[in-house]
Amino acid sequence: MKLAQLRALVAVANHGNFSEAALHLNLSQSAISHSIASLEEELGIPLLIRGRNGALPTPTGERVLDHARQILKLLEAIEQEALRERGLQGGKLRIGSFRSAATHLLPPILSRFRNRFPNIEITILEHDEYAGVEEDLREGRVDLGFTHLPCGTEFETFEILRDEYVALLPPHHTLADGPLTWDQLAQLPLILSADNSGCCGLALENHLRRAGQSFRYAYEVREDSTVVSMVAQGLGAAILPRLAAEPVPVGVQIRSLPDPLERVIGVALRANGLHTPAVYAFLDAIRGTGLFATASVA
To answer: Whose CB among 19, 76, 180, 269 lies 3.0–4.6 Å from 144's, allowing a Cys bridge?
Structure first.
């Protein structure tokens, strides 16, 4: 029995078919099929039910999968211990992040970290939303992740900063003196970012509901940068977290919301995980940039 066979079996069970499992493991579909077929032949039992809609574990296959997953977790623990012993002279660090944090927060941290530990290989997995980062943490695909706080109780979390939601107004739009009002904002066509369809959007929607506001959006686009560019061209106004709006083009007006709203950005890692020295060194690099606001355990 080989570890490659167990990895193939777990991947097919997780993804439900051979093709996606092959993509996940960066192998050919035939290699995945051969690994599982040889494992079934070696054990003398079928492990998967193959069909037009994919592959499902047999009842015995489910029990074998439980053991296979435990073996792979133990293997990961052995690898983590080896990395710990090797210290910071090599190894890998895997970071998950949502888009605006990867763009604006990560570069200065990475620069500081790389200057001190040039031999550590760094992989960054980016997501449009926080949920993808947290899923990567749960599945062990990343060692730490930039996410929205609060998050799951299985994570140890550290607050980095609080990011204010702001209204972006077209360059030539004139407003009366004084703070922005909801009525003034409602007079403009509003541009919705796809980011606002996820966690940020839910927070904003709930905030507007509490303020007794309901807006109709004239445009919906995927990228925050496109939203900002459309505002700069005078096509409408938008509400975004300040970090997501950067860099703000010259002329675009930035105004605080009539009722303030902010999102809390932090870094998370598995509370009971075996973390390498590189993880703690990276947290030190964040502290060194002055980003850490407070630290807490979720």
So the answer is: 269
| CA atoms of 287 and 98, how far apart (whole Å) | 20
Task: Return the pLDDT at 294.
Answer: 42
Segment (H or E) for 57: strand 54-57
CB 97 within 8 A of CB 133: yes
Model confidence, pTM: 0.64
CA-CA-CA-CA dihedral for 130, 135, 141, 143, to nearest 10: 60
Q: For the chain, how big is the Rg over CA atoms in Å? A: 24
Bridge partners of residue 94, in order along the sequence:
123
The helix (run of H) or strand (run of E) holding residue 268 is strand 262-270
Question: Is 295's pLDDT higher than 60?
Answer: no
Instruction: Report all structural domains of the chain as residue ranges with CATH numbers, in order of start.
Output: 3-85 (1.10.10.10), 88-298 (3.40.190.290)
Alpha carbons within 13 angstroms on the beta-carbon side of residue 75 total 11
For residue 64, what are its two tokens?
């074998």
CA angle, 168 as apex, 206 and 124 as ends, to 5°?
Answer: 75
Tell me how many helices (H) and strands (E) the chain has: 12, 12
In single-letter form, the type of residue at position 107 comes to P
Where helices occur in 123-240 by DSSP H, the ranges are 130-138, 182-186, 199-210, 224-232
Average pLDDT value for residue range 92-105: 92
Q: What is the pLDDT of residue 194?
A: 62
pLDDT given at position 92: 87
pLDDT at 291 over 90: no
Half-sphere exposure of 231 (CA within 13 A, CB side): 32
CA distances to 61, 66, 85, 220 from 70, in Å = 14, 6, 23, 45
